[in-house]
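Subject line: Sequence and fold of a protein, written as structure tokens
Body of memo: The sequence and its backbone structure tokens, given next.
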Amino acid sequence: MGRRSRALDFVIPNLPTPPSFGGTPLFRTRTQPKSSKYQLGMVKTFAEFLAALAEEKAQITLTDDITITERIEIHQDVTINFNGHSMVSNIPEDRARVFEVSHGELTLTGKGKIFALGEDNVVIRATGALSSGVPDYTVVTIDKEIEIYAPDGHAILVTSSTGVAYGVRVDFAGKIFARNGIWLSARVQGRGKTQPVIRIRDEAEIVADGQNGVALQAEGLAEWRLGAVNISGAYGMCFYEGAAELRSPKIAATGSALWLGGETLSLEVLGGVYAGEDYGLAGVLNDPTRVKLIGGEFWGQKNAVSPDLQILDFSEGAEFYCGTKDFHEEQISTWGDMPSELIQPKPDSTHERQELIAAIMDLKKLQREDFAAGYFELMDFIEYAEMVLVSEETSTNKIHEVAEELLVRMDALEMTDNSTMSDDELDNLFYSKKIPPELLEPDDPKPRHGKGSIKFRVGLKRQRRRMVA
């Protein structure tokens, strides 16, 4: 039998569980096809699931727990009724993506759970359109009885390899237990009416790692709408760009409930409770007039608002308290409610992590026009590296792997004839006292992968072929 946690009535599936139909979808319903080999889409194996997925406007109902062994690509409208069952990712690789939604609407409905237990796994990755004229190009709808578990990864990632993600809409009403909850990449920079919209419904729950997890990370341009959602983690919401309307969320953070930073954000707080063991509201803003505190309570054990954030003069109706907010009546779930068998402790590696983050910040300043090849591949890996390094518990070995891969990606860069950057300048971005020597050499005297240390294999001086773009 599976192991059970009383707190969450949680079962890691290893035997079929009795079906319990979850009801109708929360946001929209669909009409079943009149004639099809998979008329009702009743599936009990992953092979049957993939076959049903190939049908136009697929309507799939699980009749058993399913083990996922490869990435699920979504290019059309698909509705999955979990029907009381679970989907468990067993993709044999780290940083695997369980659902890759590039177009169409993915609707997860009924009652059920998704487990992605691998290192740095992403349960749902959504990308959008290149053109601004395609509303609802990529839609992810998650109903209220769907639970997502990714204790060492991310629940939902909205990103783009082209710098825009037009027509993306995330409509979330379920529950998340993940190291990081919903993450909007900094590479999403498209503006206008069809920029991404992320809506989190009343009674939804997002629980992130209480030591270093972020429930909501808004790095790119999007519109966020939060209702009466319960949120917990080290940080409730880190908000850098875009627009957000917070109606009545309840956020309990071991760090700060809201962290603000960036030049273009626009925030309107209408109500809710924002409580942190450090601050209710923290960050650095050059223009505090971009924030309207019309309502809400802000609690912090150090102070309600961090001293660097000069924002109190712009509050219209919010209340500020220095102390501890008691969330007993609200019954907000925290990381401690995560079943212990899903949590894998990692050794401390704060110094190495911070050094590598500093190097990545410099690499993000590279300009696309300076490179004929390798730029997008490097930026893709930087996006992954940032998701790994946000955790203060990322192991030293993992940081070594990331540093090594970054060097390899940099070695693959090909500069144009008219590049404004020299080879030495590019080298110095990564080597100028940003990475400590222990990260550039293996811990043991034996060569890694039979090819020597990172320094030997990649070299401090790399000769790149200059090509005309």
In short: Residues 396-411 form the longest helix (16 residues). The helical segments are 46-53, 350-363, 375-389, 396-411, 423-431, 437-440, 454-458. The longest strand covers residues 146-158.
